Amino acid sequence: MLQGHRDGHGFLIPDDGSADVYLSSQETHAVMHGDRLRVRVMRFDKRGRPEGKVLEILERKKRPLIGRLLLESGIWLVAPEDRRMGQDILIPKNGIANATAGQVVAVELTEPPSLYSQPVGRVVEVLGEIDDPGMEIEIAVRKYDVPHRFSPETLAQSAKLPEKLRAVDLKNRIDLRDVPLVTIDGEDARDFDDAVYCEPFKQGRGKKAFDGWRLLVAIADVSHYVKPGEPLDADAYERATSVYFPRRVIPMLPEKLSNGLCSLNPYEDRLSMVCDMLVSADGEVSAYQFYPAVISSHARFTYNEVAAILGNTHGPEAAKRRELVPHLLHLHEVYRALLSERGRRGAIDFETTETQIVCDDNGRIEKIVPRTRNDAHRLIEEAMLAANVCAADFIHTNKHHALFRVHEGPTPEKRQTLQNYLRSLGISLGISDDPVPREFQQLAAATKDRPDAQQIHQMLLRSMQQAIYTGTNSGHFGLAYPAYTHFTSPIRRYPDLLVHRVIKALLAAKRYTLDPAKMNVPQAPKRPGRAAPPNPADARNEAERWEVVGAHCSANERRADEASRDVEAWLKCRYMRDHLGEEFAGTVSAVTSFGLFVQLDALYVEGLVHITELGGEYYRFDEVRQELRGERTGIRYATGARVQVQVSRVDLDGRRIDFRLVREADEARAPSRSATGKPPARKRAPKTAVQALDEVRQADRDVKKSRKAAVAAQHPVKAAQQAAKRAAGKAAKKAVAKPAPRKRR
């Protein structure tokens, strides 16, 4: 698969995972980003990287391209929004439909590019003006091939679903409508897929006595409505996840289910799957059981509301919910027990700063604020983790196929890179050859008070592998669980829906199998750098089918993340256009060979200070220390350095913000620190890179003058001769520069 570059060249991403093959701009003139090619490696560059020649075009990208319609010198063309396409698309006059110049359109290719001609296409959809509210989302869903329209069959099936529960729906279910279960979510949440309840629980006497809590986690029973092989299931599998954008969600299920029948709205009867747990005083889940139930949420709480009640049980928030306050206190008690067990288990818990984009009515960024996590967030998180672990244990104990959420530790290469980085910072704690989660948690705790703690924790996160869905249980490294799965969000994640089906089958003493005939749904197109999307119908056995489904869900999860990041980047670029020329203080968040990424303190926006903006000297990139070092001045720019920057350029199409270095807000050189994180005493005032460079140049001039003076003192005759030569040279230059006099006639 060809992965294009905005500069015109490209890279072939082999299907077998081998090294990428570089293709020059001459080789990519007749192809486009996303095409499948067959190439031949012709040579290797100085670094051993292969360079190739295109032999055959195996498959052209068939999906419509998104771009802006332009009229230049009487010629209609579309400039692709994805710069990796490399070429503009010519549009004949009869192919522009009803679009006008400047609008965003979807284009279907009618003639592919060749060695001597540009691609030709026709407009198949007009999205609107580039400044229309929500246009960035319309572009992203098409750019990343996110399914955003339900099939007519799915909409028809959804319309036939009942508005309320029927008597037949309550059959063989435990009635928990009198139990004061409550939902706790964010202020902007629309679908509520989990409700919780806790009460003290004591049982038995003597050594077998149990003293702890009974914790109920009720999850919306989506599997009751979404059956295998039906249109609802086909669309849900194709999407695999809901995609969240600022002010808009593209759901996995139609709204009648996601916000209606399956949403645990307050004071409404809802079907659910319940994980009923006994949690001991030391935080261990001593027993659990699963069963289908019917519940009625007694309240819809927000995180901030619960945090206020827990902080002041006699405050106004508590007064409004007086009858539910004792249950919230019990939830907080079981949370503290689960949290203590998490610490003993050695699970990793990084305190990273997450941000929330606040938009106005037109969909533009109003402000970006840090998202603070309080005890209410952590309370729900621990309750959901406990239910997920019970689900994984239940499936694993019964030796049934399912999708596990697997997170593996660092590879040997990443472990060594992390070890070198920590050593370069003078951190005595390290990572063993066979690391365990506790080592990472100890590192996080030991460095949490350092000025560069955020960057260290980011390096710890990057050293670990990405979590995936797979049919093979390999444990969860970050959470330190031997088995883990996703059970708590079937409204927005397809793996959770499958886990519910497996648990229901086991409760009925049956086995749940993936029917390949019922999962032969349209597959997403192959994406650059990724393997072809698998089809469960092509799997040879049950275990392989689960692996195929896991790979599909993992790929779509990454696709959703990429689309969300693209929209956020567009919004931030649009936001920063209003701040061009302004100066801000920031922190170097990452260092690369081509410059520094700086995150602004006030706006929580990241941009690039290109290496050419650092002064007129050569900077060498130290990959181990993650820093740029000036060869002449020795000035270092490392992660965590404080700088003052000016917003110099915003590229909306390229999703890029450029900064210019104004001055260092603190020493650019990252000071060496001890293991305690205390920097050494500062001996001199901070100095900018430009000032340091001027001082070096002045020192060079002073040295040259002193050398000349020393030579003149030791060899006066020789010095006089050299001075005479210099004077003669200057006189000759003046004579050449002076024009010859004109001759009079």
TrEMBL record:
Keywords: Cytoplasm, Exonuclease, Hydrolase, Nuclease, RNA-binding. CDD domains: S1_RNase_R. The keyword Hydrolase applies. Its EC number is 3.1.13.1. Residues 694-703 have a biased composition (Basic and acidic residues). Residues 727-745 have a biased composition (Basic residues). GO terms for molecular function: exoribonuclease II activity. Signal peptide: none annotated. Residues 581-662 form the S1 motif domain. InterPro entries: CSD, CSD2, NA-bd_OB-fold, RNase_B_OB_dom, RNase_II/R, RNase_II/R_CS, RNase_II/RNase_R, RNase_R. Residues 519-540, 668-745 are annotated as: Disordered. It is found in: Cytoplasm. The keyword Membrane does not apply. It comes from the Bacteria. Residues 709-726 have a biased composition (Low complexity). Pfam families: CSD2, OB_RNB, RNB, S1. It catalyses: Exonucleolytic cleavage in the 3'- to 5'-direction to yield nucleoside 5'-phosphates. 3'-5' exoribonuclease that releases 5'-nucleoside monophosphates and is involved in maturation of structured RNAs. Belongs to the RNR ribonuclease family. RNase R subfamily. This is Ribonuclease R. It comes from Pelomonas margarita. The lineage of its organism: Bacteria, Pseudomonadati, Pseudomonadota, Betaproteobacteria, Burkholderiales.
